[in-house]
Amino acid sequence: MVRYDGGRASGLALVDMLLNKNRVVLDIQRETVDEKKELIDTEAGQVLNEELRKIQAMYQKKLKKHKEELEQADEKSKKEIAAIMQEMGDKLAEAERAREDLRRTGTQHDRQ
């Protein structure tokens, strides 16, 4: 451990220690660079894809529920439920775009 005491020598010792410090390679770096995996095929990509899939399934379930409620609702309720359905549809589309971005990011990385 090096302490900086305000002097030139301790400052240089601190810089030297930082420059000589071992570098850490993240798993995602190893997988994308060394193993040439697309982002979605990395361990992190798989976890993210699974979470996005769960979110997508949740919104699909909610959307189905609201559709069923809409069929049984009066006119005022229909407008409220339609707005909720639109919001759920937007969130579902957003989740799908995020998954597509995850796929596309890996493909773009391979081209570089």
- What is the overall number of helices? 4
Overall 3D form: elongated
What is the radius of gyration?
25 Å
Give the helices and strands as they follow along the chain: HHHH
Please, how many domains? 2
Structural classification? mainly alpha
Low-confidence stretches: none
Total DSSP E strands: 0
Could you describe the largest sheet, including whether it forms a barrel?
A: none
The residue fraction in helices comes out at over 70%
Strand content: under 5%
Mean pLDDT: 88
Distance between the termini: 40 Å
Structure description:
- With 112 residues, this protein is mostly helical.
- It has two domains: 1-36, no CATH class; 40-111.
- The protein is 79% helix and 0% strand.
- The chain is built from four helices and no strands.
- The protein has helices at 8-20, 27-34, 43-72, 75-111.
- Helix 3 runs antiparallel to helix 4 (75-111).
- The longest helix has 37 residues, at 75-111.
- The protein is elongated and about 80 Å long.
- The protein starts with 7 loop residues before the first helix and ends with a helix.
- The mean pLDDT is 88.
Summarize this entry quickly.
Helix content is 79%, strand content 0%. The chain is an all-alpha fold and 112 residues long. The mean pLDDT is 88.
What tags apply to this protein structure?
single chain, 2 domains, 0% strand
